[in-house]
TrEMBL record:
Tree of life domain: Bacteria
Residues marked Part of a proton relay during catalysis (site): T44, Y107
Protein name: 4-hydroxy-tetrahydrodipicolinate synthase
Record field: catalytic activity: L-aspartate 4-semialdehyde + pyruvate = (2S,4S)-4-hydroxy-2,3,4,5-tetrahydrodipicolinate + H2O + H(+)
Listed InterPro entries: Aldolase_TIM, DapA, DapA-like, Schiff_base-form_aldolases_AS, Schiff_base-form_aldolases_CS
Transmembrane segments: none
Species, as recorded: Vibrio hippocampi
Documented EC number(s): 4.3.3.7
Keyword Heme appears in the UniProt entry: no
Cross-referenced CDD domains: DHDPS (cd00950)
Pathway(s) this gene product operates in, as recorded in its UniProt entry: Amino-acid biosynthesis; L-lysine biosynthesis via DAP pathway; (S)-tetrahydrodipicolinate from L-aspartate: step 3/4
Family label: Belongs to the DapA family.
NCBIfam families, alphabetized: dapA
Role of this protein: Catalyzes the condensation of (S)-aspartate-beta-semialdehyde [(S)-ASA] and pyruvate to 4-hydroxy-tetrahydrodipicolinate (HTPA).
Length: 292
C-alpha cells in the first residue's frame, strides 16, 4: 500500500506569507516526473503546526487535485489533542487521500496507554488507512514497540513511520506486528539501512531536493540491489544530515528556493530564515550531492 520513496512535502509560501499554490502545483509535478512513490501533504515538514485548519485542508485537497491520481497522497492529520486529530481525519475523508499520517501527541507527553487510546479513538472515526508517526526528538514522547503492536491489531492502522533512527527496532516491530504491517523510516540518514533490515520505504525530507535520486535508490533497495543503492545514498549523505543543521524545514525550504523549485523560501514564525552559516553548510551539501 505504502512503500518506496515518499516525500515529506514542504508547504511553499508567497513573500507575504500566504500559501503559494502555484509553487505547490510545480512541486507535485516535479515529484510525479521524478518517480516519487507517495506524497505526504501537511505533515510536520509541511509546517502543519502553523497552518490554520482551513489552510491545512485546502493544501491537502489541492495536492490531491494536482496529483490527479498519478501518485498517492497521504495527509498529515496529527495533533496533540485527540479531538483535533479526529477533526482533521473527518475533514479530509472525502478529498481523495490514500492515508493519514498521525504524529504522536506532542508536548503533553501521554503515557503508552494514552497514546494507544488516542490512536484507537481516531481509528474508530474513519476508515482511511492510518500511519503512526513516532519522532521522539520533536514530540517528547516515544511510542514503544509493544504499543505499536497493540495498535497494529486495529485493521485501519496499517503502518508506522519510525523516525527514532534506532535500526534495532525494525526487527522488533516486524516480529511484534507481523509481515503485513508496513514499516517506513522517517530518518533519512538511516533510511537505506532501515530498508536493508526489512522496511518498505522512507518518508523523506531529502526527497524534496533529490527526488529522482531518492526514487532510484529506494527502487534499487527494494529489488535487493543494495550496493548500487549505497552509491547513491553515500552521495546524498551530506544532505541527509545538513538539511537538519537548523530546525526542519528551515534548511530544506532554503535549498528548494535556491534551486528554483519554489518562489520563496519563507516560513512562518516562530521559524525564521536559515542563518548565513547554515546557508554555507547546506550549499556545500548540495554541491557534494551533485545537485547544485
Amino acid at each position: 500500500m505504502f512503500s518506496g520513496s515518499i516525500v515529506a512535502l514542504i508547504t511553499p509560501f508567497t513573500p507575504d506569507g500566504e500559501v503559494d499554490f502555484v509553487s505547490l502545483r510545480k512541486l507535485v509535478e516535479h515529484h510525479v516526473s521524478a518517480g516519487t512513490d507517495g506524497i505526504v501533504a501537511v505533515g510536520t515538514t509541511g509546517e502543519s503546526a502553523t497552518l490554520t485548519v482551513e489552510e491545512h485542508v485546502k493544501v491537502v485537497a489541492k495536492t490531491v487535485e494536482f496529483a490527479q491520481g498519478r501518485v498517492p497522497i497521504i495527509a498529515g492529520t496529527g495533533a496533540n489533542a485527540t479531538h483535533e486529530a479526529i477533526t482533521f481525519s473527518r475533514l479530509l475523508s472525502n478529498v481523495g487521500i490514500a492515508g493519514c499520517l498521525s504524529v504522536t501527541p506532542y508536548y503533553n507527553k501521554p503515557t503508552q496507554e494514552g497514546m494507544f487510546q488516542h490512536y484507537k479513538a481516531i481509528s474508530q472515526e474513519t476508515d482511511i488507512p492510518q500511519i503512526l508517526y513516532n519522532v521522539p526528538g520533536r514530540t517528547g514522547v516515544d511510542l514503544k514497540p509493544e504499543t505499536v503492536a497493540r495498535l497494529a491489531e486495529i485493521p485501519s492502522i496499517v503502518a508506522l513511520k519510525d523516525a527514532t533512527g534506532d535500526l534495532e527496532r525494525v526487527a522488533i516491530h516486524r516480529e511484534l506486528c507481523g509481515e503485513d504491517f508496513i514499516l517506513l523510516s522517517g530518518d533519512d540518514a538511516t533510511g537505506l539501512d532501515f530498508v536493508k533490515r526489512g522496511g518498505q520505504g522512507v518518508i523523506s525530507v531529502t526527497n524534496n531536493i533529490a527526488a529522482a535520486d531518492m526514487a532510484k535508490m529506494l527502487s534499487l533497495a527494494l529489488e535487493g540491489k543494495f550496493e548500487e543503492a549505497e552509491v547513491i545514498n553515500q552521495r546524498l549523505m551530506g544532505l541527509h544530515h545538513k538539511l537538519f543543521v537548523e530546525s526542519s524545514p528551515i534548511p530544506v525550504k532554503w535549498a528548494a528556493h535556491k534551486l528554483g523549485m519554489i518562489a520563496d523560501g519563507g516560513l512562518r514564525l516562530p521559524l525564521t530564515e536559515l542563518s548565513q552559516e547554515g546557508k554555507t553548510v547546506v550549499a556545500q551539501a548540495l554541491t557534494e550531492a551533485c545537485i547544485y
